[in-house]
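QA checklist item 7 of 12: single-chain prediction sanity check.
[x] sequence parsed
[x] length recorded as 131
[x] structure emitted
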Amino acid sequence: MESCAHRNSWSLGGDTPLPGAKVSVPCRDAKNRVVWWRLAVADRSGYFLAEFDVTEVSGFFEGDPRRACYARLLASPDCGCNELTNINLGIEGAPLRDEGKRWAGQGYENVVYAAGPLAFRPSKCPPKHPF
């Protein structure tokens, strides 16, 4: 959650996690069609996980999940902090980055991608400069 002190900026100074915040993670196939998506819910630390089934990399748009998938803010559980921000492209679609974390599965490799941080902002903030 973005603090009122930093509204209208991309700064997350003074921010706090927003457990229960919802994010969508859509992915496009090789023909640039959204064919997979997951709804993810932030944990108490503000992190979310969207697991996808086993998919060949060649099945993703441009053969790269980082180009094919993105994260978008959906909904806040806090009615006092439910305005979307485009911090790190949370409205447009935050690109994924490879975190370099891999482990073997049964005939496949698991890969961790990350996005963000993303933020909602308070729906009402006091004026910055009272008159």
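[x] summary fact logged: Strands lie at 22-28, 34-41, 70-75, 83-84, 94-95, 97-104, 109-114, 120-121.
[ ] second reviewer sign-off
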